[in-house]
Design goal:
- The chain has 365 residues and is an all-alpha fold.
- Helices cover 65% and strands 3% of the residues.
- The chain has twelve helices and four strands.
- The strands form two sheets. The chain has a two-stranded antiparallel sheet. The chain has a two-stranded antiparallel ribbon with strand order 3-4.
- A hairpin with a 6-residue loop joins strand 1 and strand 2.
- The chain is globular.
């Protein structure tokens, strides 16, 4: 199994290297058309990986499908022990369900990222760079959280019910409470960076840090990109290491992803306890987040009922986590397929309701 993880991580690193080093080497404003093309590529790649999942688990490549999964009713069950294992079909359904749930929850993250970029006045030409490194950090953080979560579930099966209750509570909170925009300047991590480094009041190209007095003329402050912040320093002593507003935006993107991961990681464990399925579906969902942001950033406000759909999805997977044993008996081995159908229906209903409401809101004629 270690070789399987190593191979997958190598594939992800290759994709990231091609993305930043070849296709987006030069900073530029990502158009909606370009973003849609890249979104189609990442979504197609994520769904195509399900073919590998099917054959890998069906034929047990490098030990795939030999990890017990508490969230399944599979053909392979150890008599007297009750340990269930995934075959190709069950693994594929869980991977696609997990991918869809994680991708849906990632859309909610776009609302916050758009707000952060607006607050820090990040120029559109540099937003891709911030999101790229934000995703790299998110992959590392989520990989560590998944590893810890998998060990907890294997050793303490009762934690499944804790995760389920947490997801239901989070969904109810998302439905009932309004999420007002907060001031990133008050964030503890941002304040710590300001204590460690003086902060430039302007952007200096696509640099996260610069040396005072060493900025080349063509990398001088981006016109119109200044932002008012506390403790800004532009006339620092030559040679002083300065943080730019770009690193503050990156820190906040990483911080918000950490907060969202607290919800999304238990959600994926409600679908499967197999660490490889959890990790791969999570990674592919995150890889396409950057392109999805540029495709939807200007339209997120129009999907007013999407947050309701996401809240319902969290509650649904939470209930599924609490009643997994009962569902196995009542619905049978295909209950994860039914869960996938329910999630797709809830998402489609949220999007359709948003579109109808937006059309009614527009003045006629």
């Amino acid at each position: 199994m270690l070789w399987m993880y190593a191979g997958f991580i190598a594939l992800v690193l290759l994709l990231l290297a091609l993305d930043l080093g070849v296709f987006h080497r030069t900073a530029h404003v990502v158009s909606v058309r370009e973003a849609l093309r890249w979104s189609s590529f990442w979504i197609s790649l994520g769904l195509a990986f399900s073919v590998f999942i099917y054959f890998g688990y069906e034929r047990h490549w490098l030990g795939l499908g030999l990890t017990p999964d508490l969230m399944t009713v599979a053909p392979y069950t150890v008599e007297g022990v009750g340990l269930a294992y995934n075959d190709g079909t069950s693994a594929t359904v869980k991977y696609i369900t997990g991918y869809l749930v994680e991708k849906s929850l990632a859309v909610d993250n776009i609302f916050v990222i758009a707000m952060l970029f607006g607050f820090f006045a990040v120029p559109a030409i540099y937003q891709h760079r911030v999101l790229f490194w934000g995703i790299v950090g998110a992959l590392v953080m989520r990989g560590a959280m998944i590893a810890v979560g998998a060990q907890l579930i294997q050793r303490f099966t009762w934690i499944i019910y804790l995760f389920g209750a947490f997801l239901i509570a989070t969904g109810i909170k998302m439905l009932l409470l309004k999420t007002d925009a907060t001031d990133p300047n008050r964030n503890l991590v941002v304040r710590l960076i300001r204590r460690l480094f003086p902060v430039s009041e302007r952007f200096h190209g696509q640099h996260f840090f610069v040396r005072a007095g060493s900025i080349a003329s063509h990398e001088a402050a981006t016109p119109g990109a200044a932002v008012e912040m506390d403790h800004v320093v532009d006339a620092a002593r030559p040679g002083t290491l300065l943080a730019t507003p770009l690193i503050l935006a990156l820190v906040m993107v990483e911080f918000t992803d950490l907060i969202f991961a607290v919800d999304s990681i238990p959600a994926i464990f409600a679908i499967t306890g197999d660490p490889f399925l959890v990790f791969t579906s999570n990674v592919f969902a995150i890889l396409g987040l950057r392109s999805l942001y540029f495709a939807l950033a200007g339209m997120v406000a129009k999907f007013r009922y999407l947050k309701v759909s996401l809240a319902l999805i969290l509650m649904i997977v939470g209930v599924k986590m609490l009643l997994a044993e009962w569902l196995k008996l009542a619905v049978g081995r295909h209950f994860n397929l039914y869960l996938l159908a329910v999630i797709v229906s809830v998402l489609a209903a949220g999007v359709a309701a948003s579109v109808v409401a937006e059309r009614r809101r527009r003045p006629s004629g």
